[in-house]
């Protein structure tokens, strides 16, 4: 049963959920874009602010767990959500049609993600995951009158539902074997030699989660949905969804020893290698920026899987650092995309040609995009370097030389297309296509972009406070 | 009881086969309803009457009505000319084989891990389930509520008819 | 602290250059020039005031040292230290940086501010490489210089065919170095974790890792990781593919920096890290390294002979020259290593001069294809003579620093590896062949077009005179230079020679 | 005092070179000539001063230590002894005369400043070469003269052939230099020093006579000497080097630089004495070169090429002398050769300029009346070249060589020398007759413009002519004290007989030449025109086909190699990963076909593979 | 009569699941695909109920409830999207939406 203390622990989730309700009521009462955005942003900010309070409370509501991992995940989710909400306002300004629902869906998705990172039970895991995905169908297809958005929505819905079926079936198998749905109990229940049902269930679970993480071979929706979805929706996919799902996967592996079995780890290693190579190779000549980022995310999730495989004391910390650096860079890239495009002008400005010579009329945007790309590529003095540093360190520490080799080769292949994007920004040749003009967006967007840019740099130059924070959380998570 | 299980199981499988191989939307919906009701009977046979009831009410009742409604709304007819691709083995052989292999693998897997447990049909009452749901699972129920809200909003937004007539045309020509 | 400023000033100057574009086109140039002259001046002052005989011992291992914690979580520090070798190379960086600014004075007319930002960032990164002692910091600077260099090549490169080739060259440069850099990162991390398992202390500190106890099977691979990173940058055949393209496409300033300084970071890295960290493995690896060096000498020279593009020719020649450096570094002889340092300095001067000259030539006749040249001796005053001087330097004419470098290398190596020296000496002849072929094709023969072309102006003349003067000065009296680096080189040579013993009990 | 003089002698040309080199074309031709000639003239005076103040012992001093790393401590130091003084005198003295002549020769030439700059730099380098107290500094001079030679051969840069000749000269000599360099490495590693005095001191202690290392060291040094002195097989560059202005040929390719090899071996005599096998080889190579070159000289049509082969032949004599251990004889011949060959070249230059740059024997003739000064020069020089007994300097020096060869018991070498003497007579007579006698065979020869400037034209020729006579031989100071004892010191028996023999050979050669070229001219032409004679003529004309041989065995394979490698195959190999990546990309992108069905299939396929794998690997256990 | 082995229940679920999957891969009409998805979800739900009855626990059936909720939600969104698809293309063929590729 829920106690008051538990409610304090659930505070962020509750705040976000109530904001969603508030927004819904607001829509029913009177539509107002700016107001809705403001409510959303402040709700998310409030939730973020309540995090310290929530984490301080020794709450343990049933089916949930609030440990360092959850706290880290919540923080990352809320930060991403905040950024997306802030950026959406400008992006949706030109949208013809109701705009307020988007915020509502965003809040629902964030709620789901918050639940997901804190779930300690297959039921919460499942329902949160669906709560995260369901609004995304709507968000991706939000601008359903443009063909791409509709296409992306349909593809995502169908494939995601299929993946959910796999996930559910896996859970059912595990449940059938152990009779438990609670992770800790389940872990205790399957102690001993791995059973085929458990392994099969775990494998099916991996299919379901792997789909959300776009691990090869469950990746094929990624580029299409990235490209077709509205930029803010894609950003949610790329940040909130990825990180929440990854954290829950990590929790599964850490908690349930069955995932530590050699066979599954071997399988995950194989998938990781496939994703590293495949994602990067697919992106090589991609002319569409959003699509390219989709492929790139495949590769990044491949790198990140190393954490799951190696485990150990450093794994949690690595996860936090890598996820955050990855998310910041992704936010930077999508922030620029959102800033440059807008639904008012039809489809997003996602073709690389839209960005040709961007530097020469909006240098700051180009600088941010450059930083993001460098960060994704893992070049020093950007946040991404420390992500890569951690992940390679982890691989080396675990003596997983194949994976380390994969990361190295993958990164090298990756450089090729990141550089391609970067150099495009600076080209200036006669007769080149002028990029979409930088529509005068509000101050909030600019501030958000600035914060992202500064974070990328700051994390690249002096990551110590952040690392310490993550290390502290990881330490806390290990104690629990 | 066992007989009921196997019989309704068989019906469910056959109805599903009919669903995936048929060509008429209306028939397909009916097949699906049959399949769902058969599964509901399976639930009864297994000793889960509450689940069975819900299966009929929610699934066969509500969801399927939605399907029927859409089929009617769009005035869908059986695909007049059968898809020529359908005749080509290249088209269906691969997926079917894939599904078959998956099936075999899963069956083998289930066969491998003999749990040795049998279902004796002991009843789990609605009360037990309710106590679970509104006890420790309360938060899950709340999340499910939000999920439904999200689905509602999505469906209402996406299902919106194109406002001006010309809008669709413009979209079509673009 | 002064070390920190040495690194920071170029970066700050770079930002200022970008900003100053709005003050006028000349402003970035002057600022960049002032920045580089500042670096040069600081290093000269340090050099003049330094006592180079006293450091290198346990009491005072470095001439100047500065360390503050950076990422305590991993024992990473901002640990900067200066010894003779660093000082020489930093002075070189300042000097060539100033030259790079000067030689692009008229060549670069677009996006001047951003150009100088990149230029100064490269140089700042290079200074960082020469100063960083913490392994991660070193790696960081090693990578940092790539991005601006990429921009220099990709944005201001010579657009041979429409646009794409220079981007391809830049990308290739970046990917080669980045790939090898990642290998180095893996090696560094492996070293750190091995040290961590044995000592329980996680640190990236040079001093600590020098004494790391690495299992034999692993240490060879770690050493190889370092070696490959440096080998790509040096470059050693077969990792040289990026160099000709990068040189051919880069703007003059980029080529000057690439050949003059960036290649030297590799040799520096070998001397500072690869060998001291792994003396035994390096010694075991020496035959391979020397063989690669010899292959590089011959192969680079042969390819240089076949080039039509002046800058490609010089680039391949660089590969050949760096082969000598590689041999020297792995000979473990003090004389050879000192020779390698002289050769590095000399090569910096001569190749920079040749690139600047080819840039000047390009400004005048708008081609770098030697098939479209010929008979220029009569058409351009002074420059052909200067070209001949630097070609002579490049082929190892005595009295130039290049000669001294090459010969010290060969003298030093002969004792331990006479066969290598014999083959490498063939490089002396081949060097003559490609150098004179270039002279032949460019300046000798019939004039392809009549008419006198402009001679060098004061700026160009000044650069050339300075380079000639320095080349001769180092060639005739290298002792001040050698004294500066002696305290650094001797321990390295000793370590190398005493390699097998060290494992036993020296530490 | 003496050191100041020495310093001046080589710093003055250096100063001249620097001033001329950095003037950037701002100096006029007059000023350039004044600086160029003046600096060498002053250097000659300084040398004279040094000669006067020379005490008889070798004196050395160090300017600064060049490099000091461990044992490796070459200095910037000079040492003056009799040998270097002789060399200095030749270089500055003959050099000055040639410079002076060049003022006349080069008048009106564009780029005159460059010419003098190179010439001065050459004089400086050559002086460094002979004065250096250590082998590294010697090498500096050694390479320096090579570079100057390159610059001067290619002086007329507009002609592709000149460029090629310069290139060839540099590369071939450089090949020799590499051997020398290797020799230096070996010497340094073995003896721990590069100081010449110390090397000569250390060598006998470290190496036993005839030891492999000693032989190897001597052999490597010999390699360098062969290249620079144009001896077989590294001689092919010298005839081509005649592309340079004639004063250059006189100074560099006759009087000084090409004899540097002789100087080097003489200087390192102690080393060579430890390597008797190499000494023997030196003699053989000398004999071979002198014969090959003499035959080749017989069949040249270009005046300067005749002289070039003649030079090679005479240096062959010097090598022969070195080979039999008669170092001072070699140096003696070096000196006299410098005089008479410079004279011959300058005279040839006078002819060439007078005849409007005509230097083909078959297009000259009958000039003796019109160009009396040049004719006189040719006669004096030619006489000395063929070693006309008693009156010429060449006679004394060559006689010395042949006598030493015989006295040391090298009869084969002696015979070769005698044969060479006969051949020398033949080609010299052919040359002089061809230029000055008979009918003029072209308009250029019919209307020459004789040289008129007494100071710049007549004076150098006159002085050199005088020096080519027995006067030149008197100047020789005698270097017995510098070198180890000569083989003939024990006995003088048979010297008179020998002198008759030598004189006989010379006279026979002359007589044969006179008979052939005057009396039997037509017969000779007919013989040469076809059959065996023609083939021989071609063989000699092409100097035994060495060029063709090298072309086929070295140059062409090299060019093929360069052409094949131009595309950098190793690099192409390194591109393989990129190609693979591209192919993978193409394949993978195709899978991303936009069809939902495909996506579903791939996903299910992945899941199926995983499950099948699970059943296969784990199924049996449970 | 000792009851139904749990494996049999699961195998029934597996069969239904595979059939749904086959339908998903085979059919080109979005309507059929959505129905196949319903079958798959239903199969998973069946598996939960089988587990629940075997262990005699209510939790599995609570999961079943959640699955139905999801199925309903997904059906509504899917049908809404399908209507848009139909409005745009006058067809339910999924291959219409394959503009994005590569």
From TrEMBL, chain C:
<feature type="transmembrane region" description="Helical">
    <location>
        <begin position="30"/>
        <end position="50"/>
    </location>
</feature>
<dbReference type="InterPro" id="IPR001750">
    <property type="entry name" value="ND/Mrp_TM"/>
</dbReference>
<dbReference type="GO" id="GO:0015990">
    <property type="term" value="P:electron transport coupled proton transport"/>
</dbReference>
<feature type="domain" description="NADH:quinone oxidoreductase/Mrp antiporter transmembrane">
    <location>
        <begin position="132"/>
        <end position="427"/>
    </location>
</feature>
<feature type="transmembrane region" description="Helical">
    <location>
        <begin position="336"/>
        <end position="356"/>
    </location>
</feature>
<protein>
    <recommendedName>
        <fullName>NADH-quinone oxidoreductase subunit M</fullName>
    </recommendedName>
</protein>
<feature type="transmembrane region" description="Helical">
    <location>
        <begin position="313"/>
        <end position="330"/>
    </location>
</feature>
<feature type="transmembrane region" description="Helical">
    <location>
        <begin position="70"/>
        <end position="102"/>
    </location>
</feature>
<feature type="transmembrane region" description="Helical">
    <location>
        <begin position="179"/>
        <end position="198"/>
    </location>
</feature>
<feature type="transmembrane region" description="Helical">
    <location>
        <begin position="376"/>
        <end position="397"/>
    </location>
</feature>
<dbReference type="Pfam" id="PF00361">
    <property type="entry name" value="Proton_antipo_M"/>
</dbReference>
<dbReference type="GO" id="GO:0016020">
    <property type="term" value="C:membrane"/>
</dbReference>
<feature type="transmembrane region" description="Helical">
    <location>
        <begin position="114"/>
        <end position="133"/>
    </location>
</feature>
<dbReference type="InterPro" id="IPR010227">
    <property type="entry name" value="NADH_Q_OxRdtase_chainM/4"/>
</dbReference>
<feature type="transmembrane region" description="Helical">
    <location>
        <begin position="284"/>
        <end position="306"/>
    </location>
</feature>
<feature type="transmembrane region" description="Helical">
    <location>
        <begin position="417"/>
        <end position="437"/>
    </location>
</feature>
<dbReference type="GO" id="GO:0003954">
    <property type="term" value="F:NADH dehydrogenase activity"/>
</dbReference>
<keyword id="KW-0830">Ubiquinone</keyword>
<dbReference type="InterPro" id="IPR003918">
    <property type="entry name" value="NADH_UbQ_OxRdtase"/>
</dbReference>
<comment type="similarity">
    <text>Belongs to the complex I subunit 4 family.</text>
</comment>
<dbReference type="GO" id="GO:0008137">
    <property type="term" value="F:NADH dehydrogenase (ubiquinone) activity"/>
</dbReference>
<dbReference type="GO" id="GO:0042773">
    <property type="term" value="P:ATP synthesis coupled electron transport"/>
</dbReference>
From TrEMBL, chain E:
<dbReference type="InterPro" id="IPR001133">
    <property type="entry name" value="NADH_UbQ_OxRdtase_chain4L/K"/>
</dbReference>
<comment type="subunit">
    <text>NDH-1 is composed of 14 different subunits. Subunits NuoA, H, J, K, L, M, N constitute the membrane sector of the complex.</text>
</comment>
<keyword id="KW-0830">Ubiquinone</keyword>
<keyword id="KW-1133">Transmembrane helix</keyword>
<dbReference type="GO" id="GO:0048038">
    <property type="term" value="F:quinone binding"/>
</dbReference>
<dbReference type="InterPro" id="IPR039428">
    <property type="entry name" value="NUOK/Mnh_C1-like"/>
</dbReference>
<dbReference type="GO" id="GO:0005886">
    <property type="term" value="C:plasma membrane"/>
</dbReference>
<comment type="similarity">
    <text>Belongs to the complex I subunit 4L family.</text>
</comment>
<keyword id="KW-0812">Transmembrane</keyword>
<protein>
    <recommendedName>
        <fullName>NADH-quinone oxidoreductase subunit K</fullName>
        <ecNumber>7.1.1.-</ecNumber>
    </recommendedName>
</protein>
<feature type="transmembrane region" description="Helical">
    <location>
        <begin position="6"/>
        <end position="24"/>
    </location>
</feature>
<keyword id="KW-1003">Cell membrane</keyword>
<dbReference type="GO" id="GO:0042773">
    <property type="term" value="P:ATP synthesis coupled electron transport"/>
</dbReference>
<feature type="transmembrane region" description="Helical">
    <location>
        <begin position="62"/>
        <end position="83"/>
    </location>
</feature>
<comment type="function">
    <text>NDH-1 shuttles electrons from NADH, via FMN and iron-sulfur (Fe-S) centers, to quinones in the respiratory chain. The immediate electron acceptor for the enzyme in this species is believed to be ubiquinone. Couples the redox reaction to proton translocation (for every two electrons transferred, four hydrogen ions are translocated across the cytoplasmic membrane), and thus conserves the redox energy in a proton gradient.</text>
</comment>
<keyword id="KW-0813">Transport</keyword>
<keyword id="KW-0472">Membrane</keyword>
<dbReference type="GO" id="GO:0030964">
    <property type="term" value="C:NADH dehydrogenase complex"/>
</dbReference>
<dbReference type="GO" id="GO:0050136">
    <property type="term" value="F:NADH dehydrogenase (quinone) (non-electrogenic) activity"/>
</dbReference>
<dbReference type="Pfam" id="PF00420">
    <property type="entry name" value="Oxidored_q2"/>
</dbReference>
<keyword id="KW-0874">Quinone</keyword>
<keyword id="KW-1278">Translocase</keyword>
């Amino acid at each position: 049963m829920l106690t008051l203390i538990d409610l304090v622990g659930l505070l962020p989730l509750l705040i976000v959920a109530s904001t969603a309700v508030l927004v819904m009521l607001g829509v029913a009462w009177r539509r107002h874009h700016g107001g809705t955005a403001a409510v959303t942003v402040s709700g998310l900010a409030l939730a973020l602010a309540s995090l310290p309070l929530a984490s301080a409370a020794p709450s343990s509501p049933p089916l949930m767990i609030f440990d360092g991992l959850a706290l880290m995940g919540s923080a990352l989710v809320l930060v991403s959500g905040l950024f997306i909400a802030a950026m959406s306002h400008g992006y949706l300004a030109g949208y013809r049609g109701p705009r307020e629902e988007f915020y509502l869906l965003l809040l629902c998705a964030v709620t789901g993600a918050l639940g997901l990172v804190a779930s300690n039970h297959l039921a919460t895991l499942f329902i949160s995951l669906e709560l995260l995905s369901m609004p995304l169908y709507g968000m991706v297809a939000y601008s359903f009158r443009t063909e791409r958005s509709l296409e992306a929505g349909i593809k995502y819905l169908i494939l995601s539902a299929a993946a959910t079926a796999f996930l559910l079936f896996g859970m059912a198998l595990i449940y059938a074997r152990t009779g438990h749905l609670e992770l800790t109990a389940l872990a205790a229940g399957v102690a001993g030699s791995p059973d085929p049902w458990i392994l099969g269930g775990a494998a099916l679970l991996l299919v379901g989660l792997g789909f959300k993480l776009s691990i090869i071979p469950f990746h094929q929706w990624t580029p299409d949905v990235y490209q077709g979805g509205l930029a803010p929706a894609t950003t949610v996919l790329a940040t909130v969804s990825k990180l929440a799902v990854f954290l829950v996967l990590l929790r599964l592996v850490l908690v349930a020893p069955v995932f530590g079995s050699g066979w599954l780890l071997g399988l995950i290693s194989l998938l990781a290698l496939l994703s590293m190579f495949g994602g990067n190779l697919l992106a090589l000549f991609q002319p569409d920026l959003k699509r390219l980022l989709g492929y790139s995310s495949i590769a990044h999730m491949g790198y990140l899987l190393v954490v799951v495989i190696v485990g150990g004391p450093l794994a949690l910390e690595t996860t936090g650092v890598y996820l955050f650096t990855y998310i910041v860079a992704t936010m930077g890239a999508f922030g620029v995309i959102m800033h440059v495009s807008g639904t008012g002008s039809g489809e997003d400005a996602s073709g690389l040609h839209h960005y040709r010579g961007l530097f020469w009329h909006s240098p700051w945007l180009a600088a941010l995009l450059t930083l993001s790309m460098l960060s994704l590529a893992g070049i020093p003095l950007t946040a991404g370097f420390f992500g890569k540093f951690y992940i390679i360190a982890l691989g080396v520490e675990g003596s997983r030389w194949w994976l380390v080799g994969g990361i190295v080769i993958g990164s090298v292949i990756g450089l090729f297309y990141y550089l391609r994007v970067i150099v495009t920004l600076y080209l200036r040749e006669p007769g080149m296509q002028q990029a979409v003009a930088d529509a005068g967006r509000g101050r909030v967007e600019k501030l958000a972009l600035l914060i992202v840019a500064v974070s990328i740099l700051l994390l690249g130059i002096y990551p110590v406070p952040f690392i310490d924070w993550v290390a502290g959380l990881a330490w806390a998570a290990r104690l629990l | 009881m066992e007989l009921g299980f196997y019989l309704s199981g068989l019906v469910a499988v056959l109805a599903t086969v009919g669903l995936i191989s048929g060509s008429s939307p209306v028939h397909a919906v009916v097949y699906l309803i049959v399949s769902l009701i058969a599964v509901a009977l399976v639930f009864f046979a297994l000793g889960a009457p509450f689940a069975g009831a819900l299966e009929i009410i929610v699934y066969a009742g509500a969801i399927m009505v939605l399907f029927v409604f859409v089929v009617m709304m769009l005035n869908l007819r059986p695909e007049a000319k059968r898809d020529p691709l359908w005749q080509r083995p290249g088209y269906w052989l691969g997926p079917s084989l894939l599904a078959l292999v998956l099936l075999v693998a899963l069956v083998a897997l289930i066969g491998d891990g003999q749990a040795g447990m049998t279902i004796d049909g002991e009843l789990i009452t609605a009360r037990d389930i309710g106590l679970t749901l509104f006890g420790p699972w309360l938060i899950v129920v709340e999340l499910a509520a939000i999920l439904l809200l999200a689905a509602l909003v999505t469906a209402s937004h996406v299902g919106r008819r194109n406002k001006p007539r010309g809008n669709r045309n413009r979209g079509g020509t673009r | 602290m002064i070390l920190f400023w040495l690194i920071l000033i170029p970066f700050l100057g770079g930002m200022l250059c970008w900003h100053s574009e709005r003050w006028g086109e000349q402003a970035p140039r002057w600022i960049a020039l002032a920045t580089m002259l500042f670096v040069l001046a600081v290093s000269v002052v340090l050099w003049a005031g330094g006592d180079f005989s006293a450091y290198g011992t346990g009491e005072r291992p470095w001439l100047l040292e500065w360390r503050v914690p950076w990422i305590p979580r991993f024992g990473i520090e901002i640990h900067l230290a200066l010894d003779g070798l660093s000082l020489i190379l930093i002075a070189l960086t300042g000097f060539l940086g100033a030259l790079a600014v000067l030689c692009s004075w008229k060549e670069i007319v677009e996006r001047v501010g951003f150009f100088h930002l990149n230029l100064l960032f490269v140089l700042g990164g290079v200074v960082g490489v020469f100063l960083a002692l913490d392994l991660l910091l070193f790696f960081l600077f090693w990578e940092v210089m790539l991005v601006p260099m990429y921009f220099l090549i990709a944005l201001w490169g010579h657009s041979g065919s429409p646009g794409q080739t220079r981007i391809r060259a830049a990308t290739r440069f970046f990917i080669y170095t980045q790939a090898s850099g990642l290998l180095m990162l893996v090696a560094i991390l492996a070293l750190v974790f091995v040290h961590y398992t044995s000592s329980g202390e996680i640190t990236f500190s040079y001093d600590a890792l020098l004494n790391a106890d690495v299992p034999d099977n692993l240490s060879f691979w770690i050493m190889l990781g370092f070696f490959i990173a440096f080998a790509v940058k040096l470059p050693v055949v077969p990792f040289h593919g990026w160099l000709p393209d990068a040189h051919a496409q880069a703007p003059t300033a980029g080529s000057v920096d690439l050949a003059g300084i960036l290649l030297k970071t590799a040799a520096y890295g070998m001397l500072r890290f690869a060998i001291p960290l792994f003396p035994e493995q390096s010694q075991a690896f020496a035959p391979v390294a020397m063989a690669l060096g010899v292959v590089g000498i011959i192969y680079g020279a042969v390819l240089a002979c076949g080039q039509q593009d002046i800058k490609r020719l010089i680039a391949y020649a660089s590969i050949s020259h760096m082969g000598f450096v590689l041999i020297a570094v792995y000979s473990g002889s003090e004389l050879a290593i000192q020779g390698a340092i002289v050769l590095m300095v000399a090569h910096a001067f001569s190749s920079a001069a040749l690139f600047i000259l080819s840039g000047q030539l390009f400004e005048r006749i708008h081609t770098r294809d030697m098939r479209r040249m010929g008979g220029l001796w009569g058409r351009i005053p002074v420059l052909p003579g200067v070209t001949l001087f630097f070609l002579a330097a490049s082929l190892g004419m005595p009295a130039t620093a290049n000669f001294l470098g090459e010969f010290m290398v060969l003298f030093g190596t002969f004792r331990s590896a006479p066969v290598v020296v014999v083959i490498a000496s063939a490089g002396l002849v081949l060097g003559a062949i490609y150098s004179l072929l270039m002279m032949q094709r460019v300046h000798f023969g019939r004039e392809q077009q009549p008419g006198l072309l402009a001679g060098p102006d004061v700026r160009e003349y000044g650069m050339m005179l300075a380079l000639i003067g320095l080349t001769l000065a180092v060639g005739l009296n290298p002792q001040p230079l050698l004294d500066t680096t002696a305290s650094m080189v001797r321990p390295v040579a000793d370590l190398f020679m005493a390699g097998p013993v060290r494992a036993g009990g020296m530490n | 005092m003496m050191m100041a003089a020495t310093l001046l002698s080589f710093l003055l040309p250096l100063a001249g070179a620097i001033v001329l080199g950095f003037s950037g074309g701002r100096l006029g031709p007059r000023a350039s000539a004044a600086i160029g000639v003046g600096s060498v003239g002053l250097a000659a005076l300084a040398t004279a001063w040094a000669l006067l103040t020379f005490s008889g012992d070798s004196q050395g001093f160090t300017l600064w230590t060049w490099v000091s790393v461990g044992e490796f401590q070459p200095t910037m130091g000079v040492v003056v002894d009799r040998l270097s003084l002789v060399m200095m005198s030749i270089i500055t003295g003959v050099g000055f005369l040639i410079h002076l002549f060049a003022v006349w020769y080069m008048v009106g030439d564009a780029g005159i400043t460059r010419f003098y700059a190179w010439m001065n730099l050459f004089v400086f380098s050559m002086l460094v070469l002979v004065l250096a107290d250590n082998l590294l500094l010697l090498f500096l001079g050694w390479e320096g003269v090579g570079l100057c030679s390159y610059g001067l051969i290619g002086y007329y840069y507009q002609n592709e052939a000149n460029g090629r000749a310069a290139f060839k000269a540099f590369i071939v000599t450089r090949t020799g230099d590499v051997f020398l360099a290797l020799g230096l490495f070996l010497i340094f590693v073995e003896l721990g020093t590069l100081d010449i005095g110390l090397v000569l001191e250390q060598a006998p202690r470290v190496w036993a006579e005839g030891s492999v290392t000693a032989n190897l060291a001597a052999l490597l040094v010999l390699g360098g000497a062969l290249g620079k002195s144009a001896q077989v097989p590294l001689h092919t560059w010298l005839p081509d080097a005649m592309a340079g202005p004639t004063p250059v040929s006189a100074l560099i390719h006759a009087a000084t630089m090409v004899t540097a090899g002789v100087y080097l071996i003489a200087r390192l005599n102690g080393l060579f004495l430890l390597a008797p096998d190499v000494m023997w080889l030196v003699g053989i190579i000398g004999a071979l070169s002198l014969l090959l070159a003499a035959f080749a000289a017989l069949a040249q049509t270009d005046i300067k090429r005749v002289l070039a082969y003649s030079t090679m032949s005479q240096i062959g004599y010097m090598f022969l002398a070195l080979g039999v251990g008669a170092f001072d004889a070699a140096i003696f011949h070096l000196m006299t050769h410098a005089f008479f060959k410079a004279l011959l070249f300058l005279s040839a230059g006078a002819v060439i300029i007078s005849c409007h740059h005509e230097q083909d024997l078959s297009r000259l003739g009958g000039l003796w009346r019109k160009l009396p000064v040049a004719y006189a020069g040719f006669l004096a020089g030619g006489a000395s070249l063929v070693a006309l007994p008693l009156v010429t300097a060449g006679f004394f020096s060559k006689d010395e060589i042949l006598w030493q060869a015989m006295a040391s018991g090298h009869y084969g070498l002696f015979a070769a020398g005698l044969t060479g003497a006969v051949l020398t007579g033949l080609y010299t007579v052919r040359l002089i007759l061809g230029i000055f006698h008979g009918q003029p065979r072209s308009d250029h020869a019919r209307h020459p413009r004789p040289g008129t400037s007494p100071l710049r034209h007549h004076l150098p020729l006159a002085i050199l002519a005088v020096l080519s006579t027995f006067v030149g031989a008197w100047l020789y100071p005698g270097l017995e004290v510098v070198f180890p004892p000569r083989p003939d010191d024990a006995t003088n028996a048979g010297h008179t007989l020998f002198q008759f023999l030598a004189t006989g050979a010379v006279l026979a050669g002359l007589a044969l030449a006179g008979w052939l070229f005057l009396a039997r001219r037509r017969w000779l032409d007919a013989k040469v025109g076809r059959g065996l004679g023609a083939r021989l003529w071609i063989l000699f004309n092409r100097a035994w086909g060495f060029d063709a041989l090298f072309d086929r065995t070295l140059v062409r394979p090299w060019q093929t190699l360069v052409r094949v490698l131009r595309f950098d195959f190793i690099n192409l190999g390194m591109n393989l990963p990129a190609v693979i990546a591209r192919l993978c990309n193409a394949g993978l992108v195709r899978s991303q076909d936009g069809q939902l069905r495909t996506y579903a299939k791939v996903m299910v396929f992945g899941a199926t593979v995983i499950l099948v794998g699970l059943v296969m690997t784990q199924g049996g256990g449970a | 009569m000792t009851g139904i082995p749990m494996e049999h229940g699961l195998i029934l679920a597996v069969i239904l699941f595979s059939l749904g999957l086959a339908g998903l891969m085979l059919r080109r009409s979005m309507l059929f695909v959505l129905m196949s998805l319903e079958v798959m979800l239903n199969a998973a739900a069946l598996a939960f109920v089988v587990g629940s009855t075997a262990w005699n626990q209510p939790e599995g059936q609570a999961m079943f409830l959640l699955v139905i909720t999801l199925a309903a939600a997904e059906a509504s969104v899917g049908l809404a999207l399908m209507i848009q698809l139909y409005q745009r293309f006058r067809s339910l063929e999924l291959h219409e939406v394959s503009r994005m590729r590569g």
